[in-house]
Amino acid sequence: xxxxxxxxxxxxxxxxxxxxxxxxxxxxxxxxxxxxxxxxxxxxxxxxxxxxxxxxxxxxxxxxxxxxxxxxxxxxxxxxxxxxxxxxxxxxxxxxxxxxxxxxxxxxxxxxxxxxxxxxxxxxxxxxxxxxxxxxxxxxxxxxxxxxxxxxxxxxxxxxxxxxxxxxxxxxxxxxxxxxxxxxxxxxxxxxxxxxxxxxxxxxxxxxxxxxxxxxxxxxxxxxxxxxxxxxxxxxxxxxxxxxxxxxxxxxxxxxxxxxxxxxxxxxxxxxxxxxxxxxxxxxxxxxxxxxxxxxxxxxxxxxxxxxxxxxxxxxxxxxxxxxxxxxxxxxxxxxxxxxxxxxxxxxxxxxxx
Length: 354
Prior knowledge:
The chain is 29% helix and 23% strand. It has 10 helices and 13 strands. The strands form 3 sheets. A 6-stranded mixed sheet has the order 5-6-7-3-8-9, sandwiched between helices. The protein has a 4-stranded antiparallel sheet with strand order 11-12-10-13, with helices on one face. A 3-stranded antiparallel sheet has the order 2-1-4, covered by helices on one side. It has 2 domains: 39-253, P-loop containing nucleotide triphosphate hydrolases (Rossmann fold); 258-321, Alpha-Beta Plaits. The chain is an alpha/beta fold.
């Protein structure tokens, strides 16, 4: 993206907002199912010559989700989002937004907004004027929502300033405001906290929670895992263009099991007891004196406590360690470390809508 576009950014995807998503006719004249999920992707593949940028993505975003799309740089996140918004055509597979294919009908983008990469605006116009142009393009009630959108993203006091003087973080927030003009039912955001200072990141978290509380389904790609853990209920983790996990964050944590740290009066004896105890696994000792760690469920840990006392290794400390999303993320993606990763935006990729 450059700072001198030929037209105002279209962080707002699609045509003027209609009634509710899923309520209009589909391309064959039938009424789209109201129960269709906001996003449904099956077997999504994008190849550029011999390079596979996205290698078979399957995911479903349910209504009301705050859905995190996670992966290291070059994993194929941005390419996937571009295909979801109909900006580039998949090599294989399908995308459905509220039951409609964005490659078949622009009506698939009704009630859908967001931006991919950094939103771009006319730098020589004010923030308000850029929104006015976008609102006029969308029509409907979009122009009347400009003041509210600026207030939500806390840009009211800078609305009259030229966008060329905005910081990167301010342009990100203006991109959110532009998306909100459409009163979206589905919001897709690519790295929305990029360029924000800690206060801005906090405000963005609050904003995302508020929008989700209003019934907006949100999909956001990010590499800031602590942010995702705080705001998302479901995630997809992608590595080298393929999904390695999709589901509830809580379920991912449960499958990891609970890790404990143990310190006793006789750690060498305690280490032997832990390794022999049924239900206790992944026993490790690190450092000098050794710090013992292990995984196990509550009943197994209770039985281990008794076994340690009977063995004469009295417990000084037994501390549960809850796995973070960051821990689980690296456990899923690091076994592919060193493998060539597909770039998110190959040179041949179609640019965002002007």
